[in-house]
Request: fold
Amino acid sequence: MSRVHDIVIRVGGESGEGVISTGELTTLAAARAGFYVYTFRTYPAEIKGGHAVFQLRLSDHPLYSQGDELDVLLAFNQEGYDKHHADLRSGGTLVYDKDQVEEASVLVQKKFGVPLTSIARDEIKMPLAKNMVALGALARLFSIPEAITRELVEEKFKKKGAAVIQKNLEAVTAGGSYIEKNFPDLEALHITVKPTDKRLVLSGNEAIGLGAIVAGCREYFGYPITPASDIMEFLAEELPKLGGTMLQVEDEIAALAMAIGSSFAGKKAMTATSGPGFSLMTELMGLAGMAEVPVVVADIQRAGPSTGMPTKMEQGDLNLAAYGSHGEAPRIVVAPINVEDCFYQTIAAFNLAERYQMPVVLLSDQSLAYRTECIRRPDLSRVEVWGREMFQTNGDGYKRYVFSETGVSPMAIPGTPGGNYVATGLEHSETGRPRYDPTTHQRMTDKRFRKVVAAARDFPPVETLGDADAELGIVGWGSTLGPVREAVELARARGIKILSFYPRVLHPLANGYLINDLKRVKRLIVAEVNMLGQFAGLIERQYRGEVIRLSVYGGLPFKTRTIVDKIAEVARNG
Amino acid sequence: MGEMPAAVQAKLEYKSEVKPTWCPGCGDFGVLRAVYEAFERLGVDTKDICLVSGIGCSSRIPFFVASYGFHGVHGRILPTATGIKVANPELHVVGLGGDGDAFSIGAGHLPHAVRRNPNLTYIVMDNNIYGLTKGQTSPTSASQFVTKSTPYGNVEDPINPLAMVLVYGATFVAKGFSGKAKELTDLLVAAIQHEGFSFVDVLSPCPTFNKVDTFKYYAEHVAPIPAEHDVTDKLAALRLALEPEKHYLGIYYQVSRPTLEQRLDASRRKVRAEPQRELEELLARFS
Reply:
């Protein structure tokens, strides 16, 4: 039997009956046991009811995608079986709640019915503990030490008292014992993991909140929206502890207006939203560009226009992030590629916003927002945090918008003697006075856009992976780069020469950023989760080779296989 | 040049070198004068003042004052000002703008600013018309008022700004008239000194586009708030605000309630805020 290195498990069932909590706890337990983990989840848009899915991939090596095929499916109910059994690989294992799934209809070969419902109800006398029975079963399947699951259950129910902890521990043990007694093929799913270096387990949204704090952000203003709200909730808890402020406000317009006001008054400030909220913010994006106020706006993209599919994934907001506002004002769009990158790119977003005094959009998405990954514990002593160039009190007349080589002008914070000025969205002179003459408008527009060229020197570098001499290249952006990376490894294992690119800034592609790297290949696949090929469109303006669009837009992230197949097809026809 | 009298010099401190762009006879000149005088009387350093405005004729006012200012987008005076105040509670933050900015495009922010009660002042220069866009109906225009956008008469009824803000729960509500400069200065001083959100609706006639609500009209329809009025009696204040064809000038209502900044501070104290708290502790949350 060949050694197993990598297992994908999906939990499916009715929302509210423990699908997500089972998945979350199993993830944490696996991470503490030394596995690399990578999760994916979808909620129904309804609060209660509807179908919920939690997918967990665990491995002895770092992971870049959620995995295409299932090794294990845990079905909490009939729908959980019906919807997902086709994704089970041949030879995969089905674990199901014997009390909920009709056995006669189950078609897969390896199947193990566990009476989750009746164990919880009859043995434990606590029907809600079904998820704990499931946790125990899964932990036993993957040989996660019982000490770890015990510890987690104790932490989770700490506030509820010893009796509740005891009941839940019994449920976990019951789930484990059932597997032990009735599951003869345990070794098939056993992965050996080494003791690990220090790691954190967190979601993309948590990594953004953490990154913001490390970057020095102390003021956050926001309006609830799926899938961005938990950034607000995380900061609501943490910012006051640091002397900062989180305020939930009346709408997204107010949120960005307050963040801009706060930054004008000298604080590092941000807001986060999703497409519908970001659409409302676009007028203020122009103001921040025009008045040269640093601010970070995170857009956690969801699927579709208008209300679309709030709990699904798509990369459809790139054009809005790059251009959404009237007139021409500078901005930078930064996209993290995985959970760890959410932390570092949030810091990069603040650094760029502050140093170049403009709005920076941090473009994440639903799949990255909710999934958890293991990341290396950041070494905070090595994180670079930049501030803005400040006006220092001097005897001369202060010019807030003084022309300079980089376009950056020292900023005075209200309260600074001698710095009095009016920030304005009107076209203005160097001193900030309204001006409408052609020379001023052209010179000021040039000044504002010079900052973008200067900023490009500070953009996070484009990483490349693959064959340096390949004629075929592939690029994607944001969370799509995980499956791209895995697909490239698989394609190269098949003997296809390919070079892949990992940009973090998507707009502007100034000063040759990314474009110069892309010159190394003759043909380029651009993979993204949208119909129009929005990033392909931005690249095509400057790239001189052939751009091949690879688009999916069903509300789900790429499957690695889809990308491998495309690479193979293009390589074959090349 | 000879020595200037001290009073003139003081006023010059608040006046910028930008000349107002308003039409001759505009009510906003009276508001600007009262702003200079109020700050002079309060003796606030210009570096500690931040005037926040939106879009409209009246919203140009920060350019005419030698303080810090933020001239933002249409309708967002209150959130912008709140962000500034939260970031630096030491600043004297004053929002200024027109009736369109306050009661039409920005009306959604007003109840929320009121319930947060930040310690800032909001002065609405109310002329019942859109001036900058050259004469369309506004949310305070009278029913049947004829403008370029209502050639057959306004089909809507006007908002009653004071009644609205009183019912929202504002802690300081007043009405002034730009034709009564001294009284207006007194009101602005009281508003700026008020600990909490202070709202001042100023009747500020537009001589160019509103030929009905003129200085002459208001001179005939204003009256001081009756001496016996109790400023802590909200229903009495509401009755004054609802009286038709009558504009009482003065403070309608003033009570004390904790400000947003105070309440944010209280939240921080609950979690024993330590600005220098080790960030490593935060990381521990995820291990």
About this structure: Residues 162-182 of chain A form the longest helix (21 residues).
